[in-house]
Amino acid sequence: MIVDCIEIFERHAQGYDKWFDKNKFLYNSELSALKRFMPKEGKGLEIGVGTGRFSLPLGIRIGIEPAKAMAEIAKKRSINVCRALAEELCFKKESFDFVLMVTTVCFLKDPVKAFKDIEGILKPEGYFIIGMIDKDSPVGKLYILKKDESKFYRYAHFLSIEKVLGWLKELNYRSIRVCQTIFNDPERMDSVDPVREGYGEGCFVVISAKKGKKEHYEDKS
Q1: Cβ–Cβ under 8 Å, residues 155 and 8
Q2: 14, 70, 81, 135: which sits with the fewest CB atoms below 10 Å from its CB?
Q3: What's the CA gap between 3 and 79, in Å, rounded?
Q4: Mean pLDDT of all residues in 143-149
Q5: Which run of H or E residues covers position 120?
Q6: Amino acid 4: pLDDT
Q7: Average model confidence (pLDDT) for the chain?
Q8: Phi, psi of 124 (to 5 degrees)
Q9: Residue 16, helix vs strand vs coil
Q10: Residue 64 and residue 46: Cα distance in Å, rounded?
Q11: Which three-class secondary structure state does DSSP give residue 121?
Q12: C-alpha to C-alpha distance for 200 and 218, rounded to whole angstroms
């Protein structure tokens, strides 16, 4: 499945990139939610950087991306891209202050391994920020119903927020915060949706978790 997914992004990289221009309200809603938890400074990495649509406005200049065509577009946006998989990170231990992953977790072959490896490349007190589709949200359920109609999402395995939070806690991430947006049908959006705390209603959810020891864990979701 992962090979088929990469091939789709290879063949449709330009179409993927143009999608953000056609769906500016959804895109800007997602950016607003991500910005709520983005660190103000530090060295960041985006895993699954795609064409750089999130890295660029969020000030991230390093990314990994397995699809060559996508990576080439990101490079034109002055992003230093390493072609690799999330489960095969090529960075030294404790290299980054924060790691971002946007709508990538649903395409991973082994999310738990990826999360564990990310913890290794984060500096002490570093942050792991995840932007994802919540399969249990009202709009998320529409995504699932229509996923076979999508070039990209037909290969996605949408996850629940509870599942991802469980993995983070097992891997000793702490100070977990969650916010959500996209409460309306994306195809009918005519304005940017608000960002609210928690999850369960919004289709797009952002999770921020700090690297740390289990005994210091504090759940703020």
Answers
A1: yes
A2: 14
A3: 24
A4: 81
A5: helix 111-121
A6: 61
A7: 91
A8: -55, 135
A9: helix
A10: 7
A11: helix
A12: 20
2-216 is a CATH 3.40.50.150 domain? yes
Evaluate whether 185 touches 137 at the Cβ level (below 8 Å).
Answer: no
Residue range 25-55, pLDDT digits in tens: 999 999 999 999 999 999 999 999 999 999 9
Q: Which amino acid is at 86?
A: A
Residue whose token pair is 């809603």:
29
For the residues of 167-187, what is the DSSP string, one character each?
HHHHTTEEEEEEEEE--S-GG
Q: How confident is the model at residue 143 (pLDDT cuts 50, 70, 90)?
A: confident
How many whole angstroms separate alpha carbon 37 and alpha carbon 208?
6
Q: Are 96 and 40 in contact (CB under 8 A)?
A: no
**Beta-ladder partners of 80:** 62
pTM for the structure as a whole? 0.91
Q: Is the pLDDT of residue 124 over 50?
A: yes
How much is the average pLDDT of 178-184?
A: 96
**Sheet containing 204-211: order of strands:** 80-82, 62-64, 44-47, 96-102, 122-133, 204-211, 173-181, 196-197
Q: Residue 83: what pLDDT?
A: 92
- Three-class secondary structure of residue 79 per DSSP: coil
68/143: higher pLDDT: 68
Count of Cβ atoms closer than 10 Å to residue 183 Cβ: 17
Burial of 115-127, coded b for 16+ CB within 10 Å and e otherwise, reads bebbbebbeeebb
Which of the four pLDDT bands, split at 50, 70 and 90, describes residue 220? Answer: very low
> How far is residue 75's CA from residue 171's CA, in Å, rounded to a whole number?
32
